[in-house]
Each structure stands twice: as structure tokens, then as C-alpha cells.
Amino acid sequence: MKFENLLGHHGTAVARRLGWKQGDEEENWSKKAIDSLMKKLQKQNKDSMLMLEQVLKTEGRTPSECVTIPRSLDGRLQISHRKALPHVIYCRVYRWPDLQSHHELKAIKTCRYCFESGQRDICINPYHYDRVEAGVLPPVLVPRHSELPPVSVPYPSTEIWATVIYYELNNRVGQQIPVSHHEVVIDGFTDPTTNSSKISLGLFSNVNRNSTIENTRRHIGKGVKLTYVPNQGTLFAQCLSESAIFVQSRNCNRFNNFHPTTVCKITSGCSMKIFDAEVFRTLLGQAANQSFDASYELTNMSLIRMSFVKGWGSEYQRQDVTSTPCWIEIHLHAPLRWLDQVLSNMAPPPKPISSMS
Q: How confident is the model at residue 352 (pLDDT cuts 50, 70, 90)?
């Protein structure tokens, strides 16, 4: 079936109206995306192709079945030079050109093959997903001045204050790494020594690593130095690499009055405070007077995501951190302990949390 036939009586006007309009994408991107879909459906399920055409004509006003394509190894689909999640691509093309990421989509209850189900096939029926409020990523912000940690005598600590997890795209690589030193360097080298104040990402192996990841790893260099100040409960990040690092910390965004999902770009030699325990303590006290769910939401504030070399956000090709080649997630233990104490003394939520939540 030809591209024009799929569009039905709307013709190419639908492609112009619903085309991919983000960043510097070329005008014919939507046609490439639809042509790619047509080839997949024609090869695997011609009935789905007719079903999709009917769904688009009726604009989802009548119930419809799932329209599926096979899930790739990393879950994403490449159109031209860009990769994205399939259901996001076709919801952008056919319904919401300003859609940023999968966090803004929620599958309807009757969708059997929604992306979140983790099945071998993915439903790309654009009317099997609803748009939810997730906030559009604002521009990446770059601090003008360094925020340096207070001068103190460094000493080893036996208490584990954080756990670091390394990712390449949306795949976790290696084991979780406990952090006890108040100063720890995370670099791209292959230092084989058992130095607990250094994490060398060059030692991590991944059989699914592609050339983009390999090239990015080569530019991590000296990486980042994390400085934890236990008596203040603050955490600082200093970029030691010649390439920038990108940090998303909801706690940091809160005390800087940024949008909650803002990504901060820290350039070479610059330092920035990325967590403040007092801010967390104040918010936890407020949430404890509201509800269990309000308190539980603060779990996100104990997590910090940081990518190396490649950034993400509204001004980048990559809309989500899971699309960056090399990134880490830092789990702060003290905030989680405080949160656990508060939640254990509260009544459970009216709708208990489960795997289906």
C-alpha cells in the first residue's frame, strides 16, 4: 500500500499537519516514519495495516484492536538518523507533534500490547495511548559560577552514603557500586586497582555496546568528582572531563527554582551543588502532613541522573536520559532512610501500590 493510500482521503495534508516538527528535523521525516511502518505491517500483518487506516480515518472514535510491530533489542526504532520508542514516534506523527517522551503517554486499559507490558510485540496504535501531564523539558541550563564544597579534611568513611549504577542507553551495565568515601571520582579509565574512592567505567564490559557508546566512553576522560559533606547533607559534582556532564536532580532544581525535570550542563572545571538535605527534610515534613502518596513521591528526589559527554532535553536529539550512550544513576541512602521512617508511621494509601500500579 502506498503512502498516499494509507492517509486516505486526507492525502498529504495529514503528513504536513502531523509531521515531525521538532528541532532541525527535515520535512519528510514523517513520510519516512510512515513508509517504515508500512513495510513492517505489509510484511507481517496486512490486516493491521487496514485497521490502522480505519483508525486514522475515524480518529479513534470507535474501539480498535492493537496494531503491533516486533520489539527491537533495545526497544527503539530508528528512522533516518534518529532512534526513539515506536509508540512515541507514531503518537507524534499522528496525534501530538510536540510529544517529548514516553513519560507523557499512558496506555488505555484495553491495549494488550502496550509498550510497558514488555512483550515481544509493541502496539503503535496512536489511539491506544492517552496524553498525560509530564511537563516538557525546559532548555538545558548552564550555571554561571561554580559552587564549591566547604573545605574539610577528607577521611574514609565506613558508612555507605550512596549507590551508583552505570547504564548504556537503557541497559544497566555491571553491578551496583556502593560508595563510602566522601570524595569519589567516576572516570572513563581502566584503573584495575581496588581504590574505593574511584570508579573507572572503562572496566565495565557490555556485549551489546555499539560504536556510538564506544566513542562516547573514549571522551569521558577524568569524568566527575562527587563530594559528599555529611554534616551538611550536601552533595557537589565537579566536572573533571574536557567534555561536559549533564545532571538531572529534582532536589537541585527545587532549591534553584527550576522546572522539576531541568537538566543542568556542568562544563569542564565547574562545580555545582546537586543535593541539599535541608531542602529534602523541609519537603518531607510538608508531605507527611498531606498523604502517603505525597510523601512517596519524594522518592524521586533521592535519585540523581548524570550523563557523560552527550546531553538530553528539549534542545537535544535525545529527549530522555535512556537515549544517552553513557550515564549513571546515584541513589542517596540518607533521604531514603528518612522517607522510609515517615512512610512506616503513616496509614497505607487507599489504592495499594502493586506491579500493576
A: low
